[in-house]
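Bench notes, afternoon.
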Amino acid sequence: MLAIWLALLALFGVLALTIGGAFDDTFTIPGSSSGRALEMLSVTFPEAADASATIVVGAPDGTRIDSDQARQAMESYVDFLDSDLDFVKGVQLPYSDYVKGLVSDDGSHALVRVLVEGSTSTFTDEQRAELTDAAQKITELLPGSTVAVGGDVFSVEMPHISVVDGLGVLVAIIVLTAVLGLLAAFMPIVSALIGVGIAVCIVMIAAGITTVSSTALILVVMLCLAVGIDYSLFIISRHRDQLLKGMDAQESAARAVATSGSAVVFAGLTVIIALVGLSIVGLPFLSVMGMFTAVGVGIEVCLALTLLPALLGLLGDRLRPGARKARRLENRRPGRLARWWVRVVTRWPLVTVLIVVVGLGTLALPARNIEMALPNSGRSSVGAPDRVAFDLVSREFGIGFNGPLVITGSIVESNDPMAILDGMRAEVEAMDGVEMVAAAVPNANADTAMIQVIPTTGPDDPATADLVHNLRNQHQHWLDEYGVDTAVTGLVAVQIDITAKLGAALLPFGLFVVGLSLILLMMAFRSIVVPIKAAVGYLLSVLAAFGLVTVVFNDGVGASLINLSEPGPIISFLPIILMGILFGLAMDYEVFLTSRMREEYMHGNRSWIEDGFVHSSKVVIAAALIMVSVFIFFVPTGIGAIKPIALGLALGVAIDAFLVRMTLGPALMKLAGSRVWWLPAWLDRRLPVIDVEGEALAHQTKLAAWPSSDDASAIHAERLLAASGDRVLFSNLDISVDPGELLVIEGDRSARLALMFGLSGRARFSDGEAKVLGHVLPEEGSLVRTRAPLLLATTADPAGELDCGKGGIVFVPALDELPRAVLSALSEALAVPIDKDAPPTTWVLGVGPGTDPESYLPGDYRVLRLSPQLAALAGGVVR
């Protein structure tokens, strides 16, 4: 198994190196007016829609950039850039009769726009370096001048993995060593890193086929590393506990995967569903991000279920604690601390609930004023080339020059396009928030107009978004007044539209994940209260994390602690990413804590909250510490979208694990008491069953030697109960049938059907234990069904069903209802002499009350009478 996974890692690694592509951080929104207008602009005004760089040229001290000497130097400079660089499509001089504002008011600086081939994301680092070097030519042509290079193609700041990011793995090793021991500590790390490697390679391969953002890569690394370690921790912890009790190492590994592995599958599926749910927003870059992160989580789940057991097999009994260490583990301090803590929070549960809810509500308040935007050069690292140029443009020209807006419109039917453009220019310049109209020109074919608007505010300022909305509100007026069907576009307008769509998607996405949590947890715990408690806790965690991230990134509180140079808007897709990932992680902790409490409750333990908490808290604490450490070490060196996402995840996990699941959760459980496990009967019947903690396996192993180790009964059942609504069909029913016997069930038709459908593995009893053909019901019902056919009046192939039951059990719920042909085939099968060399066939036949079985059956048989009136005597057998 280890060789298979390493081979897969090598295979995907080779594919990534050979067909992997570059990442594309261009954010688009299909179908939006700004997106459609930008696409049209690339056709009608390609020079306006092309990717470009901005060169800010400063005149020598005491001179003006528009002097004759400077003009001659700039013209030579433009010719040099246009001819010397093969990726340059054109260069725009700052001295234009059609474009205003390219020379600063004091004449000290000028803007040169360089149009390049490709897009912002396909412009390579080598081309950036080549353009930066070529831009310095102006200092030779115009001695004493200065130059700064920035613009769109320089605004891409690719995330990277640093040594600091890897410190989270070191902390994880320390935590794992404390929980599992040194030898076992490296297994989760190895498993998680192999999963991260494969997932990263898949993302790189996908980048060569479709558009994938660099943020997706870092998100995959962060989340896969965290969940990979945690999922392995859950399974190994169960394995170690079982070894401590003396279980065989191989059996223990199998039991650990079958029990905790079930919880890992459930937890992984919740994360995957939430990540795939990001596609409901309708933004391709976000859908791709969620999809590939979900693939990575799926790989980690597969590793936990396959590679981890293989590693457990390699180490075998070497993971078993010695006698002295076992005694020390039994009395370990974390258990005492956990018991003390749960007693504190449940002593006055209402006080605990109020403190936590009020506290988290207070932390969430700043989220009301959260400011979001997509990245731009103004948020790049201080000292980055594009940031230097951005700040210089802001100082010398005005911050609005870093994010111009573009109004486009069709003028194909106009007889005087310049008059229309002059009129629209005057109206736009009179609007609040407009610094100037830099250009208002038709294209070469005179069929499309373009108006370039310079706002008074920056690209990510809320006032710029207001200006975009105001410009769009003029659409009908300009259509009526000038006959021009306008659209507002440009990179800034596209980013504003994306931010608005992401904000609008928060509520439906929140309803999706909360509704999903209610359904999943209701199926897992058969409870109404538990899902509501979990969903409310999740919302508190998410909102508190939003509030803290707002305080840090929008307001700058504690900015120096996370290496944040200055406050600013939060990346627009952080809230929805945070909601999706925290949902999955919150459900992980809810499952591992609540499932153990439910197990203790079902075993009749009156201290089920306390004991369940103590037994599961160690793993949850370790898992949360690992998650937080992995995420938090991406914060100091994180750039672009990674820093706020990493901080939000670290804070969200810490709040959810320690304040919500381990403080608020037990207190709410204490308040609700046993009512926490209530579920309406009608809903219980309709909900599918999810075995989160391997209860089915525990039931099978418990009855493996029941009723005795040498029992060979075809059917053995005790205390069977079947009910339909409020009606009890039978109760306290004991049955024992040896192989080859014939048993007749006499009673109400509904009771007979319920009994036989249950014993044949096709339905569940309301209560009781049953073992049929050596298989425990209901867990092994599928195995029973293959050897226990049901012969009904509607059976199409009675001979085939009887043949299938040879050596097994044939169930006939209504003998007196069988057609003559089916009854004849049954009689022939019953009359066949027993073959001593073949396993005998057992027969269970049902008749209505008062029916004489002798008219149907040859030989000896037993009669078991079932009726509500004789429920207490249902175990009586009459010869």
